[in-house]
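ESCALATION

Customer reports they have been waiting on this structure for their group meeting. Please prioritize. Original submission:
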Amino acid sequence: MEISNDKKALELDVKVKSLVKAIQVLECFTTEKPNLGISEIANMLGYNKATVYNIAATFTSMGYLEQDPETQKYSLGLKLLHFGYIINSHITLSTAMEPYLQKIADATQETVYFGIPHEGKVLYLDTKTPSAQFQRPILGEKAPMYCTGLGKCMLAYTPEEFGNLPEELSAYTVNTITSRNRLWEELGKIRERGYAIDNMEHEFGISCVALPLFGQSRKVIGAVSVSGPSLRFTAQTIPTIYATMRDTLAEVQYIY
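Update from on-call: job pushed to the front of the queue and completed.
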């Protein structure tokens, strides 16, 4: 049985086999078998008991598994609900945002992105282009917070995220802000004007304007950006793009 699991790992081009084993332990728990002992899991996977015990003990210490003190059996921990919450809430939000993102894309004739803060980075949930143009799926892709319009916009309104930035800010282009002090000053300017600008800081030749999206608690739950060739983002066009985004997003602010 263990041989077949290893073959499966190879077929999936797995780099860390120990991680595969750990995930397989979690996958043993189902609605039909919500409570399992070490021997049961070991038999199901074909792994030795010591391996299964070490994995289960680690997951238990992290809150992903729970152990019944009487039966000594394990069950999925409540911490896993956190991931379900993230997926359900933001996928629902992304679906609700679709018509507004498309409206902005059609009005500006530029590409629009929607993302949320996640583990110190921007997590992209959706993108829209002007009607009839090709739209590349972007769900799940990530980008740095400090050099993207979406990221800087969210950083400006969630100062606690500033502490999650890497100690050294790598330069993606000559325009990337790599000084933490200068970045902090930039975030203050964003709060003053109400939007962020990415001036070719993450990708040369590409600029964007980004606005925060606030929830019912008045906390930032995400951000929306309009992105395109830098030549089209001028001192004259940026205010117009901002106004379009502001007026469109006003319909959904504070709903979620």
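Sent to customer with the following note: The two ends are 47 Å apart (CA to CA).
Escalation resolved.
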